[in-house]
Amino acid sequence: MKRTIPMAALALATVGFFSPVVAADDHKMITPKDIKWSPAPPILPKGAESSVLHGDPTRQGFFVMRIKLPAGYQVPPHTHPVNEVVTVISGNFKLGMGSEADKSKAQDMPAGSFFEFAPGRPHFAYTDEETVLQITTDGPWGLTYVNPKDDPRQKTQ
Fold first, then answer.
1. Which residues are CB-neighbours of 155 under 8 A, at least 6 positions away?
2. How many CB atoms lie within 10 A of CB 48?
3. How many C-beta atoms surround the C-beta of residue 37 within 10 A?
4. CA 128/CA 95 separation, integer angstroms
5. Residue 155 confidence class, pLDDT cut points 50, 70, 90
6. Of 142, 136, 157, which Cα lies nearest the Cα of 75?
7. Residue 93, beta-bridge partner list
8. DSSP H helical ranges for the chain
9. How far apart are CA 55 and CA 71, in angstroms?
10. Among 10, 73, 114, 144, which residue's beta carbon has the most beta carbons within 10 A?
C-alpha cells in the first residue's frame, strides 16, 4: 500500500521548517539610548569606549561590539587574529593599510562605510572627529601591534 501525505500537511510542514519560531527570551533589541559604554579593553589606546551588544569578544564564537573613538584618536599599525568585519556607524574613520602609519595613505571611511580584512593584514587608523564603529565577527578578538612598543599594555607596566 502506497502512503501519501496530504498536501495540506506537506504545506504546513514546509512552512514550519522555513519559518523560525522566536521565543520571547530568544532575542535582543537595543536602541542607541540603551547602549552602555565602558572604557575599551586595554589593548586599545586610552580614550576609546566600547559596548558589547552580543556575545563575548574574548571567547570563541560570534560577537557584536561597538567602539567609540574620540576626535584625534590613533591606533598604530596592527593586525587581528580573526577576520576584521567593521561598519562605520557615525563619524569618519581614517583607515590605512600597511605596517607604517602614513596618514597620507589613509582612506576616509564615512558613516555607512564597511570594510573587512583577513587575519594578519596590517593596518592603522585615526579619527578627526568622534567616530563609532561596529565590529561583527567571530572571537576571540584582539590586536597585535606591528611595533610591540605601540601596545598600550606595555606602557602601563
1. none
2. 20
3. 13
4. 12
5. low
6. 142
7. 109, 127
8. 7-18, 152-155
9. 28
10. 73
Phi, psi of 25 (to 5 degrees): -100, 15
Angle at 152 between CA 74 and CA 86, to 5 degrees: 50
Q: Is residue 12, in this structure, part of any structural domain at all?
A: no
Whether residue 21 is contained in a domain is answered as no
The CATH number of the domain where 112 resides is what? 2.60.120.10
pTM here is: 0.79
Grid coordinates 555607512 are at which residue? 112
Q: In the chain, what are the helix, strand and coil shares in percent, each to the nearest 5?
A: 15, 40, 45
* Closest residue by Cα to residue 67 from 112, 37, 25, 100: 37
For residue 89, the one-letter residue type is I
Q: What is the pLDDT of residue 154?
A: 86
The tally of domains found in the chain comes to: 1
Which structural domain, as residue segments, surrounds residue 140? 27-155
- Rounded to a whole number of angstroms, the CA Rg of the chain reads 21
Residue 5 inside a domain? The answer is no
pLDDT bin (cut points 50, 70, 90) of residue 25 is low
